[in-house]
Structures are given as structure tokens and as C-alpha cells.
UniProtKB/TrEMBL annotation:
Family label: Belongs to the D-isomer specific 2-hydroxyacid dehydrogenase family.
Protein keywords: Amino-acid biosynthesis, NAD, Oxidoreductase, Serine biosynthesis
Protein name in UniProt: D-3-phosphoglycerate dehydrogenase
The protein's Enzyme Commission number: 1.1.1.95
PANTHER family: FORMATE DEHYDROGENASE 1, HYDROXYPYRUVATE REDUCTASE
Amino acid sequence: MVTKIQTNVINVFIADPLSEDGIFPLRQETDLNLNVVINTGLTPEQLIAKIEDVHVLLVRSQTKVTREIIAAAKNLKLIGRAGVGVDNIDLAAATEHGIIVVNAPDGNTNSAAEHTIAMMTSLARHIPQAYNALKNGVWDRKSYVGVELKNKTLGVVGFGRIGTEVAYRAKGQRMNVIAYDPFLTEERAQELGVTKGTVDEVVKAADFISVHTPLLPETRNLINKEKFAIMKEGVRIINCARGGIIDEDDLYDAIVEGKVAGAALDVFVEEPATNHKLLTLPQVIATPHLGASTIEAQESVAVDVSNDIIKFFKTGTVTNPVNMPSIPKELLAQVEPFFGLAEKLGSFLSQVTTEPIKEINVSYAGEVANYDVRPLTSNTLKGLLQKNHGDHVNDVNARYLSERIGIKINEHKTTTAKGFTNLITVEVKTENEVHTIAGTLLNGLGARIVKVENYVVDVVPQGHLLYIKNTDKPGAIGRVATKLAEKEINIATMQVGRDQVGGTAVMMLTIDNVVTQEDLSYVAQLENIDEVKAITL
């Protein structure tokens, strides 16, 4: 909730070309005194010169809303992005200046899903290649014998809004669908009539593979030579999501070698991609990033943002916030010190949990239980989701995104903090796992993780950590330290905890280096070591 804006004239500045139908809600609004100005194609310097008295800045992807532009906008209350991605907006600067950023996450879903299906069909039937041959005077039917979609298996990697819509359409073509998403549960998969699988299971089973994940460090080059090696012979690849999810060099090699029968690409790592080597292959069809380029989508995203602008100035709330809105100063002063701790607790759990999360319980004990803790829960959820959903997850939309993917959220309060002035405990539940972490703020010392699972520890929640479960036997600590030294991994601090003598124990190590999967496997081979996980906070 943000404070309702009281002003006579609200200056709305549209800096990129938008559909006139899309901004019609602004034109017809009578309760607000909106002054809509359209001035496109400005340089950053020209925009800075015009933005001082602007209350709302509305853009698409062309205009880069930089920190300098935001600093010059002395009266700016809201930035609207008519589309999904906000890479062209400095969110940190907007938040620092108390400016709300909104986007239109659902406006192009249908357009992108339809384009994916169109590309898949065109790929299966060689439509672009046959058309080009015919235009060049060649009537050639034998060279362009295709395959049917019916009874083929479509693998969907990334099962969010667009991936789900693609699956609906594929099932209408009587395809079988197997899907991967870190938040896809078995119940949700059954409800949608798809098979749930890991990335490897999806790419092994599929005749067609379509990717729909955000581009994150975890998803960059997700589809690479190792994945191509386990695919079916003659598999076909579609990418209408983000360039970089598929390793383009490895895709090129897989097509040349005959492993991949063809690829349909709407996006590339570097755009425009007019001279890309993939475009030299006859098995590749491509479009210039047209996934959201329909009249309806461009109108829809503009309408969504226009309605959010009106809602903001009438009620002080928005439907699709991208960054954290202003909150009352007295509330901020109470809970702000806990923001970082809550986010780190969520992030830790996201890195130790291996299955889709079904439920999260956040418990507040001691002094913190006297506050409005909803912003803290949002920060916890943000930390939990960002690993797989990227930086677009924030304090405001984290709860919405969590509920949309089926996570049940529970908050608990108690004045008893069991020896601490304040204590935040977070528990996540999956189909087969339960993980718990607790943290506190110590006067003069800052945030601390004080409990992991059932083990008492004292760990600063920052940097690179190793979380090791082991059997409580003599020599375990020494063997771990020796193995890490062999890999030139320096230990900064170590905390150990156990449930009973000779039982299960944990080690929490702060280390100076990022560890590889190879390093983790190296340590995991040690006697009495049950589990080794790398955590970055």
C-alpha cells in the first residue's frame, strides 16, 4: 500500500511509440486531470531536459530509464513499462527515489505462446524453406517432407505462464507434454495433464523441445552439448524465450552432426543477429524477436499499464508492481533492519531444497512479533524465489508469485523467543523434504543464522558457505579441511553442531572461494560425509 497522490494536474509522458488504443484508458479518464504528452525518439539528454515536471513516465524497450534520468525527474511517482522485461529501467535508482515501477507481465503471454506453436509447426513442415524455394522458381515436394505433431512428445523447459500456454496448445495438437520447472509439483502437473520431469528427463523423452525459462546464471547455456548428447536422434529445438538459454555453438554443432534435425529461433544472445552462423544452416528457421509483436499484445500491455497508472493515482495501489513501493516511515523504521536477514534465510533454503516447495511457514518471535511482519515475509519469499525466477522477483510481487505457483504461505507470531530478543524461523516443505533455518539480529553484531535444521550454529549470513552433513565421528573436521586445502579453498570460519554424540552433525564453513560441482563431489567422497552443498548469500 502506498500513499494516495493528491495533485491537480498529473503529467504523463510517453517516451516510446504505443498503440493509441492502448492508451485509450488514459484519454477517457475523467476523474483525474491527466495531461498526456507523447514525445518519442529522444536522446537521454533531451529526456532529462523534459522530465522535471513529469509525474508518470511510460516506456517500452527503446528508452533507457537510467539513474541520471530518474535523478532529474523531481516529481516522478511512477514508471510504466508497456511489456514484461524491465532491463531498460534502473530499478535500484527508482526504488531509492521512492518511484513505483509497474509492468504488464500477462499482456504478451498469448502472443508468445502462439508464436512458439507457429515456429514449431513451421519447423516440422519446412514451411519457410519450401516457400523460399517456390519463390525462386523451384517446385520441389520431395525435399520438404515433414513430420506430424500428433503423438509426438513436446518437452517444455520452464513451465510458467507462457510454457503452460504452449502446453495447452500442444495438447490440442494431440501431442504428449513433459515439463520441467523448479516449482512444478506433481499435483499441478496432473491437473494440467502433463508429465513432470527433470531437465534431463525432459530432453531425453522429447521429440520437440521448447524453452521458456528466464535467463539467469542457472539457466544460461542450460541446453548445451551434454544435454544434446542425451537427446533423441532427430530432435527439434524451439527458442522463443531468451537468447542464451541454449548454447548457440553447441546447437550449431549438434545440427551439423545430424543429432538435431532442426531449430526454430526467435531470440539470440546478441541481437540483431543478421550474420549469425546458425542462419547459414538450412535446418534453421528464425524470426527477429517477434514473440510479443502482435497488434493485440502491444495494445494489451499498454492497456494494462494505463489502467495501473489510473489505479495508482486513485487508490495508491497498483496491480503489477516491479519494485518495492513506499511504506509508512514508522513501519519502515521498525522492520527495515530485518529485511536483509529475512531475504538471506529464504535464499539459504532455496539452495538446500531439491524439490518443488509446497508450503512455507515463517515464524516471528520476541520483539519482532509486535510489528507488521508482512514486508518481512515478502522479503523471505523474494530470497526463496530469486534463485529460479531472477531479479524480477521483489518485495512486492514475491507473495503473488509464490501463491501463483502453488506455495501455501503461513505466518506465525509469538512473544517467546527462546533466549533471543528476536527470532525469525523459516520452514519449507516439499513432497518429501522439510528444511528449517532461524536467524536473529544481535545488538552491535548484526544478522546471524543461529539454527539450521535442528542444529545450533552461529553464522554470518553472507558470502560463500559450505553446508555439510556428516556422521559425528572423530577426524571428520580434519578430513574436510584437508580436502579443501588440496583444492586451494580457504576456510574463513567454521561452525559445527550435532544432535547427539555419534549421531548426525553439521558443519557450516565460510570460505573465500566459489566452489565447483567437482569440488563438492571431491569432499562428498570422504568417509562419514552424507551431504555437501554450496550456499552463496
